[in-house]
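Most newcomers find our protein records easier to grasp once they have seen one. The structure tokens are whole numbers drawn from a learned vocabulary of backbone shapes. The record below serves as our worked example for the rest of this section.
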Amino acid sequence: MRHRARTMVFEYPAVYLPFARRKYPGPSPAVIGPETELVIDGYFRSANTFSVYAFQLSQDKLVRLAHHLHAPAQLIEAARSGIPALLLVRQPRDAILSELLYDPVALPDAMVAYSRFYTSLLPYLDSFVVGEFTQVTSDFGAVIRRLNARFGTSFAEFRHSEASTRECLALVRQRGTLSDVILGFESGVVTREELSRELPSLERKSKPPELREAWVPSQERSRAKAALLEQWLSPGLARLRDRTQFVYEQVRSAAGPPPGT
């Protein structure tokens, strides 16, 4: 019941955003406000964390981001306010099964939440740049290029390489420490130089495996996700599966051609 109520409230800026500002005073997640220069948000497990780090690591100055609420309300507010926004989307099966590894809600409820999330944003698609998961994780520079073209911004592009990807994943692995410096870097209130000074001390601290691997893919989670796949393919969930895929395709169509085509 709590999950269903949360799903509905997430769609209404006037209701959810004041609550979010009280719940998340900072440094992360940052909630959209007058100082926001860009919103990066999407459904759970859709490369939200990677996108935020890849973006901020590319910039040569602080950029104030609103991010990681996983709430349509934040993106709707961006559309209404004319604030540049990147809407992230991932194939529903992959996003939802990955979500269930962290938040053990009922699969049908998660499927409804995914569909509602993107359905509520369909009227605003022209106000966003859409970043599909495979685009974001393989050519995020092209996504930033589309942001600049759409909104007239001049954000620096992320350059995919082994070194840049490794740097992103190193931050992703440290996110579970909830360091104010790392979280502040996400939101654009901590410089890269301040982050660089903080990282060595974080890396020296011993962390349990579940914290070290909480935000990155692992073999154990892959096996757990495979076990959920049988439930996903249940005939009784066919209508919900079709709905999630239909909404995904509508949003995905706004993201441009897949990488390499």
Notes: The domain at 2-255 is CATH 3.40.50 (Rossmann fold). The chain has one domain: 2-255. The chain has 14 helices and four strands.
